[in-house]
C-alpha cells in the first residue's frame, strides 16, 4: 500500500536531485561525445534496470527474443555459454538451462510504462496531452537552450523556471486545445521552483516511496531536453559549482501534471491512486527480464570465447631494436584496421595506441576564433590553453571579417523578411554549387590551420613533467625510431549534423590534430629532451616527432611536416607518406566490405563528399573489446575494427599509476561509447535519435524529427543499422588488461564508480597472463575466477583479489 504520510520538503528536494542524476547528459552537436544512456543506473544489474526503465518508459534493455533464438540455432550461443551466464545469478529460484532455451523461443510482451497524469488525461478527454505538452515545452526549450541558431533567442540571465513562467503566462495554446485557465494557473505558481514542486506534490498526493520512479519518469518523458539540462549540471559540477536547470525542468513538467490533475481529477476515479501504488512498489526484475538478461550475457560469453581464442593464437609480431617508423594512433576502434594495414605494409613499422588527446587537456582557440574548444575527455577539466593564432595579425583579422560576413549573410538568408526574396533573386547563383554537391565533386576542407602553440607558454619544468607523464603512459620510453608520427583523428564529411560525433571522443568531439601537433612540438624541444634524459628517458638526437591527422572517413593521413621543418628527415617523411598511402588503400578496401553500396576503396572518398550520404562511415559501430597490453599481443591478428587498443606494459608502470589512469579514464570513456551504441540498438525509440532523413537541427544543440517537439539524443538509426540488418552487435565491452589481477583489484577497491560498472557487468574485466592469454575473469565483489583452457571459464575456482 502507498504510504499516506506527509511528504517533507527535504524529501522532495532529495528525490528531485536523485531523479536528475538518473538522466544522462547530452553534449551540443558542435562537440558531441558518446554518453552511456544508463549512466544513472550503473549501480544496478541489467535485469534490474530493465524493470526500472520498463516502469518509467517501457524501454527494452535487450534484443528481442528471436535474436537470441537465432544465435542459439546457429550455434553461436552454446549450452555452456548459457550455463556460464546462469552462474552469475545468486537466486536459488533462477530458471535452469531448459527454461532459458524455452524462453528464447517464446516472444515476450511489450513493456508498458506506468501512465503519467498527462496519459490519463488524454485517455479520459481524447486530447493528446502528452503530445501537446511535448510540443509546448519543446518550443520553449529550443529557444531557452539555443546556442546561436535562433534569430530570436530566449532571454538569458534567468533560471529555467523563471523563463518558462514568463513564456507560459502568454502561451494560449494549452487553453485553446482545452486546458482551461492554464496561463492563469502558471501566473499563480510559487516564485521558487522548490516551493512549486512542494505545492504540486501536495495537490497530487505524492508520497516519498513513489518518488524514485515517478520523478524519473517525468524527466524521461522530456527526452533530450532533460539531457541538455543534465549537461548543464554536469559542466557546473566539473567546474566545482552547481546548476538547477534540470530540477527546474522537473518542476515545469510536474506543474503540467498538477494542472491536468486539477481539470480531470473527477474523471480519473481510482486510476491515479493505482498508479501511485505501482510507483511505490520496489523495482524488482520479473522472470522475463531475468531470462532476457541471461540470454544477453550468454551471447557476450560466446563472443568472449572468440576473443580468448584470438589471444591464444600464435603471434607473428617481430621485435626489432629500432623500428623503421613509429606511429601512435588513438585507441579508437577505427585505428585498429589502419594500424594492422600499416604494419602489414612494412613489418618494421611499429604502431602504438593511446587516448587521442595524447595526455594534453587543452582548451584551444582555433585560428581567427574566440571559441574555447575543450579538446579533452569530458570527465576532465582543462589543464592547458592553446591557440592557432600566429604572428600574422592581419591574416587573422581578415579571416574574422570574412567569418562575420558569412554569418551575417547566413542570417539574412534565413530572416523572415528576406528568405523568399533571397531565393527568388539569388537562387540561380547557387546552381553551380548545387550541381557540384549533387555530383560529389565539391572541394573538401583541408586541415591546414597554423601550428598550434601553448598560450601562455608552459614553464620548462611543466613541459618536462607533461612529456614524461605522457611518454610513460604510452609505454614509449625506449627504442625510438628516427620518425615518430603522432596521429590524431577526425572525420571530414559534409551535410552531417553529427559530424562531431565522428571525431575523437577523447578530444571532446573535436579532431585530434591539435593535441598531436602540440605534443610533437613539446617532444622536439631540446630543453625538454635534456630534462627527460635526467629522468631516465633518453630520446635520440636524430628522432623527430611529427603531428598528423587520420581522416577516419577516407583513411587518408595528413602529415603536418611544416610545423617544424627538419631537412634531415625529408627522406623519412617521404617514405612515411608512401607507407600511409599504401595502408590507406588496404584499409579502405576492408571498410568497403561493411559499408552499403561501397564496392571498392575508390568509393570511400566519394561517400565523404556526398551530401546525401547517411552512412559516410560506420564510426565505432561493432565495438566489443578494450585491450590494454603490449602491441605484440595483438599484432598480426585481425580484430576487425572492433577493439580499442591501448599500448600498456605493466613492467614499466611504477606503483601502477598508469594502470589506474587507464581503468578510470579511457576504459570509462570506452564504456560510454559501447553503451551508447548498445542503447541506440536495443532501444532506438528511447536512446536513439531516430531517422536522419527526418532530422531538423534545433538551437544548434541537437535534432528533432519533424518541425519540433522532443529533442532526440543518441545515435541515428542509420548509425547502427544498414537497412536490412544490424551494423552493430549490442554487446557490453570486454576489457582485457595485461597486468597482475591484484593490482586491478586494488584500483577497483578505491574507485566505487568504476567498480560498479564491473560488478554489475556493464563491463567485463579479464586479466592477461605473461603469454598474452586470457587467464582470469573478474566475477564481481573483488573476486576473480580462473579461465579453464583458452576459450572457457569456470566461476567455481575463485581467487580473492
Low-confidence stretches: 411-417, 793-798
Q: Spatial order of the strands in the main sheet?
A: 11-10-16-17-18-19-20
Helix content: 40-55%
Q: Radius of gyration, Cα only, in angstroms?
A: 28 Å
Major sheet summary line: 7 strands, mixed
Which oligomeric state applies? single chain
Structural class: alpha/beta
Molecular shape: globular
Q: What distance separates the N and C termini? A: 43 Å
Q: What's the tally of helices? A: 30
Averaged pLDDT: 91
Count of DSSP strands: 20
Proportion of residues in extended strands = 5-15%
Structure overview:
This protein has 801 residues and is an alpha/beta fold. Among the domains are: 196 residues, no CATH class; 91 residues, no CATH class. Helices cover 44% and strands 13% of the residues. The chain is built from 30 helices and 20 strands. The strands form five sheets. A seven-stranded mixed β-sheet has the order 11-10-16-17-18-19-20, with helices on both faces. It has a five-stranded mixed β-sheet with strand order 2-1-7-8-9. It has a four-stranded mixed β-sheet with strand order 4-3-5-6, covered by helices on one side. Strand 8 and strand 9 form a beta hairpin. Helix 6 packs parallel to helix 14 and helix 21 crosses helix 23. The chain is globular. About 2% of the residues have low confidence.
Amino acid at each position: 500500500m502507498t504510504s499516506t504520510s506527509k511528504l517533507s520538503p527535504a524529501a522532495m528536494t532529495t528525490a528531485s536531485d536523485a531523479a536528475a542524476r538518473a538522466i544522462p547528459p547530452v553534449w551540443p552537436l558542435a562537440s558531441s561525445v558518446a554518453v552511456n544512456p544508463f549512466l544513472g543506473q550503473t549501480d544496478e544489474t541489467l535485469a534490474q534496470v530493465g524493470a526500472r526503465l520498463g516502469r518509467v518508459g517501457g524501454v527494452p534493455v535487450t534484443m528481442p527474443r528471436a535474436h537470441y533464438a537465432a544465435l542459439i540455432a546457429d550455434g553461436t550461443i552454446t549450452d555452456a555459454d548459457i550455463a556460464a551466464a546462469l552462474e552469475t545469478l545468486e537466486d536459488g529460484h533462477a530458471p535452469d538451462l531448459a527454461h532459458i532455451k524455452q524462453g528464447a523461443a517464446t516472444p515476450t510482451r511489450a513493456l508498458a510504462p506506468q501512465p503519467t497524469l498527462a496519459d490519463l488525461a488524454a485517455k479520459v478527454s481524447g486530447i493528446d496531452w502528452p503530445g501537446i505538452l511535448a510540443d509546448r515545452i519543446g518550443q520553449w526549450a529550443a529557444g531557452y537552450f539555443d546556442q546561436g541558431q535562433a534569430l530570436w533567442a530566449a532571454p538569458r540571465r534567468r533560471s529555467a523556471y523563471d523563463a518558462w513562467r514568463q513564456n507560459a503566462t502568454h502561451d494560449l495554446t494549452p487553453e485553446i486545445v482545452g486546458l482551461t485557465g492554464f496561463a492563469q494557473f502558471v501566473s499563480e505558481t510559487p516564485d521558487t521552483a522548490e516551493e512549486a514542486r512542494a505545492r504540486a506534490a501536495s495537490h497530487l498526493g505524492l508520497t516519498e516511496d513513489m518518488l524514485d520512479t515517478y520523478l524519473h519518469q517525468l524527466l524521461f518523458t522530456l527526452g533530450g531536453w532533460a539531457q541538455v539540462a543534465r549537461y548543464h549540471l554536469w559542466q557546473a559540477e566539473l567546474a566545482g559549482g552547481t546548476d538547477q536547470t534540470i530540477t527546474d525542468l522537473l518542476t515545469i513538467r510536474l506543474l503540467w501534471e498538477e494542472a491536468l490533475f486539477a481539470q480531470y481529477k473527477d474523471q480519473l476515479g481510482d486510476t491515479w491512486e493505482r498508479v501511485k501504488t505501482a510507483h511505490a512498489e520496489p523495482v524488482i526484475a520479473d522472470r522475463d527480464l531475468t531470462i532476457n538478461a541471461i540470454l544477453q550475457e550468454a551471447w557476450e560469453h560466446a563472443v568472449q570465447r572468440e576473443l580468448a581464442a584470438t589471444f591464444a593464437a600464435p603471434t607473428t609480431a617481430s621485435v626489432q631494436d629500432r623500428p623503421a617508423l613509429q606511429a601512435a594512433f588513438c585507441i579508437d576502434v577505427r585505428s585498429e584496421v589502419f594500424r594492422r594495414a600499416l604494419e602489414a605494409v612494412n613489418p618494421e613499422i611499429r604502431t602504438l595506441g593511446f587516448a587521442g588527446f595524447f595526455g594534453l587537456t587543452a582548451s584551444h582557440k582555433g585560428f581567427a576564433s574566440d571559441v574555447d574548444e575543450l579538446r579533452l575527455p569530458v570527465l576532465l577539466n582543462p589543464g592547458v590553453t592553446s591557440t592557432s593564432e600566429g604572428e600574422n595579425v592581419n591574416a587573422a583579422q581578415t579571416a574574422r571579417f570574412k567569418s562575420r560576413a558569412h554569418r551575417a549573410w547566413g542570417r539574412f538568408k534565413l530572416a523572415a523578411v528576406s528568405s523568399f526574396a533571397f531565393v527568388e533573386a539569388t537562387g540561380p547563383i547557387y546552381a553551380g554549387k548545387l550541381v557540384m554537391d549533387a555530383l560529389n565533386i565539391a572541394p573538401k576542407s583541408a586541415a591546414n590551420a597554423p601550428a598550434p602553440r601553448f598560450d601562455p607558454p608552459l614553464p620548462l619544468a611543466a613541459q618536462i613533467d607533461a612529456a614524461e607523464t605522457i611518454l610513460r603512459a604510452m609505454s614509449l620510453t625506449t627504442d625510438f625510431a628516427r620518425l615518430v608520427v603522432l596521429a590524431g583523428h577526425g572525420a571530414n564529411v559534409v551535410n552531417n549534423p553529427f559530424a562531431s560525433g565522428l571525431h575523437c571522443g577523447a578530444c571532446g568531439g573535436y579532431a585530434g590534430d591539435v593535441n598531436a601537433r602540440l605534443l610533437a612540438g613539446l617532444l622536439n624541444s631540446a630543453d625538454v629532451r635534456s630534462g627527460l634524459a635526467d629522468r631516465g628517458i633518453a630520446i635520440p638526437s636524430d628522432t623527430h616527432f611529427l603531428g598528423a591527422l587520420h581522416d577516419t572517413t577516407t583513411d587518408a593521413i595528413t602529415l603536418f611536416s611544416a610545423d617544424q621543418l627538419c631537412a634531415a628527415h625529408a627522406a623519412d617523411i617521404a617514405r612515411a607518406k608512401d607507407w600511409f598511402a599504401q595502408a590507406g588503400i588496404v584499409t579502405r578496401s576492408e571498410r568497403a566490405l561493411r559499408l552499403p553500396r561501397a564496392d571498392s576503396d575508390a568509393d570511400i572518398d566519394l561517400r565523404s563528399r556526398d551530401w546525401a550520404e547517411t552512412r559516410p562511415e560506420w564510426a565505432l559501430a561493432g565495438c566489443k573489446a578494450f585491450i590494454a597490453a603490449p602491441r605484440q599481443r595483438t599484432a598480426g591478428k585481425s580484430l576487425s575494427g572492433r577493439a580499442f587498443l591501448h599500448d600498456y606494459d605493466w613492467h614499466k608502470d611504477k606503483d601502477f599509476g598508469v594502470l589506474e589512469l587507464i581503468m578510470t579514464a579511457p576504459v570509462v570513456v570506452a564504456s560510454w561509447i559501447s553503451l551508447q551504441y548498445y542503447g541506440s540498438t536495443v532501444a532506438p525509440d528511447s536512446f536513439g535519435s531516430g531517422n536522419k532523413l527526418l532530422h531538423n537541427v534545433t538551437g544548434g544543440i541537437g535534432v528533432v524529427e519533424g518541425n519540433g517537439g522532443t529533442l532526440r539524443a543518441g545515435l541515428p538509426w542509420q548509425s547502427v543499422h544498414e537497412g536490412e540488418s544490424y551494423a552493430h552487435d549490442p554487446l557490453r565491452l570486454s576489457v582485457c588488461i595485461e597486468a597482475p589481477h591484484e593490482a586491478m583489484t586494488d584500483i577497483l577497491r578505491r574507485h566505487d564508480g568504476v567498480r560498479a560498472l564491473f560488478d554489475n557487468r556493464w563491463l567485463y574485466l579479464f586479466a592477461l597472463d605473461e603469454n598474452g592469454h586470457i587467464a582470469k575473469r573478474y566475477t564481481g565483489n573483488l573476486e576473480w575466477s580462473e579461465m579453464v583452457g583458452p576459450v572457457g571459464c569456470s566461476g567455481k575456482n575463485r581467487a580473492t583479489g
